[in-house]
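Input chain follows. Return structure tokens only.
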Amino acid sequence: MPTWGLLFLLSAVAQAIQDCPAPCTCQALETMGLRVDCQGQGLMALPALPAPTRHLLLANNSLHTVPPGAFDHLPQLQVLDVTQNPWHCDCGLTYLRLWLEDRMPKSLSSVLCASPEHAAHHPLDQLTGYQLGNCGWQLQASWVHLGVWWDLALAAVAVLGLALLAGLLCISTEPWPETRTQSHPSLEAAHQSLPILPSSNHHKPPK
């Protein structure tokens, strides 16, 4: 690496150390990255992490979840310690699980869930996608107060649909009126006026 490139990296790391989050300590590594130590700081959310972070220690905190994309701005991140945290293992932890599966699969067995009840005391690698839950579509808050009226409206639509289906079935099972084909008089007259051709099966007279 040219000298100017090395100086640029050193200055970037020095600036990152200055930007180290307050509850954590940052130390430059020989691999030109940062070791960010946030262990035992009582963190309830991830701090703003510097981009050159290579080793991130988050053990023994009060973290419950990791927002999606939390580590996307850390391309050098290779070591992540998230043990001894009260993780709430629902769909909100899917990003952390996928990140660990891709880069540190062996560490999944040491990440224990604290909640919800069905996942408590289980390692993250033993939970299926179904057990993690689904953060999909939910009713808007303005619709929740409709309550029983919403259910009645759905029931009315279902009954109307069944009535329409029954009517279509009744129509399709009724016999169609028989239609008799009647020949047109002009066609009969034309047929009678046609000459009768001799049959080709007549034997020719012997010579």
